[in-house]
Design a protein that fits this description.
Blueprint lengths: L1 H18 L6 E3 L10 E3 H13 L4 E8 L3 E7 L4 H17 L18 E7 L3
Parallel strand pairs: 4-5
Antiparallel strand pairs: 1-2, 3-4
Helix pairs in contact: 2-3
Length: about 120
């Protein structure tokens, strides 16, 4: 009986944690003073990275998602897809370091070599 009640209480607690809003949508920034706190919205970080991706020649459309990893999708208009992918990885890697995040994006799985995942596809129309 007590074990069942404990499992039910833990289940209710997990449900409450799942539905309550938290600070998951904010990325904490490094600060020079411990009493100073700053954070950056994930959507704003994605917009910064999307702007950097759109400045590359050949990129027609870019979609960026910032979570544990930075996931980028880009449509290539007129360049070789592999060259655009290499350029995107380099540019997004530099841009990820600019905001001075306290915990920069890191690979969720140890088998992933990079914190940035880029998918590139040629645009046909």
């Amino acid at each position: 009986m007590l074990t069942g009640a404990a499992v039910a209480a833990i289940g209710v607690w997990l449900i409450v944690l799942a539905i309550t809003p938290g600070l998951r949508h904010w990325l904490p920034l490094r600060s020079p003073a411990p009493e100073l706190r700053a954070s950056l919205n994930r959507d704003a970080a994605a917009a910064l990275l999307r702007d950097a991706a759109m400045r590359l020649p050949g990129v027609a459309k870019a979609r960026i998602r910032v979570r544990r990893l930075v996931k980028a999708r880009a449509d290539v208009r007129f360049r070789d897809s592999q060259h655009v992918k290499d350029d995107l990885i380099a540019v997004l890697g530099e841009e990820c370091d600019k905001p001075a995040l306290a915990r920069p994006p890191s690979p969720a799985l140890p088998r992933l070599p990079s914190r940035i995942v880029v998918r590139v596809r040629p645009r046909t129309n």
